[in-house]
Amino acid sequence: MKTCVLAAAVAIGVGACGGGGGSDSPAGPSGSLPLPCVAFQSAATNLVAGDTNGERDIFLRGVNGGPTLRINRSSDGAEAVGGMSLSPAVTPDGRFVAFHSSATNLVPGDTNGVVDVFVHDVEAGATTRVSVDSSGAEGNGSSVFPAITPDGRYVAFHSWAPNLVAGDTNGELDVFLHDRQTGQTVRVSVDSGGGQALFDSSSASISTDGRYVAFTSYAPDLVPGDSNGLADIFVRDLQTGTTERVSLDGAGGQAVGGDSYEPVLSSDGRYVAFHSWASNLVAGDTNADADVFVHDRQTGATTRVSVSSAGAEAAGGPSYGPSISADGRYVAFDSTATNLVAGDTNGYADVFVHDRQTGETVRISLGQGGAESAGGDSIFASLSPDGRYVAFESTATNLVAGDGNGKSDIFVYDRETGVTVRVSVSSEEAEGNGHSNDPATSRP
Questions:
Q1: How is residue 338 annotated by DSSP?
Q2: Is 185 helix (H, G, I), strand (E, B) or coil?
Q3: Annotated domain spans of the chain
Q4: Is 28 left (phi over 0), alpha (psi -120 to 50) or beta?
Q5: Is the domain 305-444 a CATH 2.40.50 member?
Q6: What is the pLDDT of residues 125-139, one digit of tens each?
Q7: Which of 147, 289, 332, 358 has its CA 20 to 30 A from that of 96?
Q8: What's the pLDDT score for residue 216?
């Protein structure tokens, strides 16, 4: 089995899966985590030894066990000081984890007093700041919500900083891409002529090769004919320098009736999943709720995936938070709809996976023995690239045995075996004593 890479800088005990361990110490033998790895943020103080900073931290753990690692550390192993760390994004091998943080000691010279985006190299034990301009100068505004390519080279994020690129005078939130190999930072949320956006742009997703970046924007000037006054989904091709709008119906008509958010790209950038309150992206959209859609950039087709296996539209609540497999076949999302699967009577948000090839929709936020979840919502789904594993956050109390902490936890469902495991635990399997949120498997 392929394994997540772990550093010689992390003490995890002996053996490929690291029996024992869980230390934050920057010294110890090398080892590896079983794939897939899941990164998450947590307020728990008992997931690793020596967690005394009183802040939310970023952790990494393998689905099949092994050590739990704290990621938001400086290159010399010091825990983060001065602010919380949130929104992790992780590469498939678990080597690189991007996150944003207001901590002031993760890298030398952090004096801007704002939130920055960092990448921690688990193998090397090194942390670098990527929300910088092409000369390496720190941003003078907050930068948040990173996305990272599988090789760890490119990191996309959105930022209020006006000094990351020359000519940033719009006073709006913009999307940027930083190349960790060359050090270059470019602004992504521009029109095909390079003109800057009139309004805010955010929520970046990136293709495997870093060529395509999808994002949400309220700007009406990124493409011609944008007159709907809504937040739309755009894709920037960094090779050709073109920007296109993809929150469209199958005939190319713009969205009407509601905003579109949360884009996520398939590996090659062909498919874009997003959620939208628009009522005209597909025929027969009469539920007046947010739905999850997939737009095929090659054919121009837009399909709704927050539907039952019979194709019925969701009823009883909105659908949010799409995550798409590398090939675009599977889409995970959360929904409070009650008719996507039979027997949905728990009254909570659940996590579903829709197979775009077969049309089947299944619920995966299930308790032991297949019982529906009880005690809380299940949200923020994140698919592994092959679509086999689904990580999600839940306050449900019956997904695994022994869940008595009364906190939100991170779970992973294996669609091949039907087994759910909790990963927001210590290396010794102790449940967290604080809320854990924002799970991230590798993004395609």
A1: S
A2: strand
A3: 305-444
A4: left
A5: no
A6: 999 999 999 999 999
A7: 332
A8: 99
